[in-house]
Write a structure and sequence with these properties.
By secondary structure, the chain is an alpha/beta fold. It has one helix and nine strands; from the N terminus they run H-E-E-E-E-E-E-E-E-E.
């Protein structure tokens, strides 16, 4: 029972870390309105520096295989990391920082689906290298205007 509880805790920790990366990517898209794409050939970026964030031209070829070559790592405040596990300041360490990848999917042209579409991938570790979760979301940055002059 203790092993099952420990495994469940590790999986939840990795899932929450991946969710943190996804939400950070969505916040960045909304807050910075930077929609130019890049090749993303360099291996990694520091996502805590918002100027270093980027939108990649290519999708991740194998999202389930981490760490990704073209990743952006994001270290949330008060999240401790150590590949050897253990505790830091009374809290459990995560194996590595959450990572994200933002890919531009294209423009929506129908009336209800107008906007710019992005695929955001997030990965997060628990306390061990073998405990990792990968999440993906489709995010639309849309500005809808309706002509109400005919009312």
């Amino acid at each position: 029972g203790e092993r099952i509880a420990g495994n469940t805790l590790e999986k939840q920790r990795s899932l929450q870390a991946a969710e943190t990366a996804l939400r950070y990517g969505e916040w960045w898209l909304l807050d910075h309105n930077q929609h130019a794409t890049q090749d993303c050939a360099e291996p990694e970026r520091n996502g805590n520096n918002t100027a270093a964030m980027r939108i990649c031209k290519l999708r991740l070829s194998q999202p389930a295989t981490v760490p990704w070559l073209s990743r952006t790592e994001y270290q949330p405040p008060n999240m401790a990391f150590s590949q050897s596990g253990g505790l830091s300041g009374g809290d459990v360490n995560y194996y590595a920082a959450p990572q994200l990848h933002i890919h531009y999917l294209g423009e929506g042209v129908r009336l209800r689906d107008s906007g710019r579409f992005f695929e955001i991938s997030g990965a997060g570790y628990g306390g061990q290298k073998s405990t990792v979760s990968v999440l993906q979301s489709t995010f639309v940055f849309a500005v809808n205007a309706i002509d109400l002059g005919g009312l």
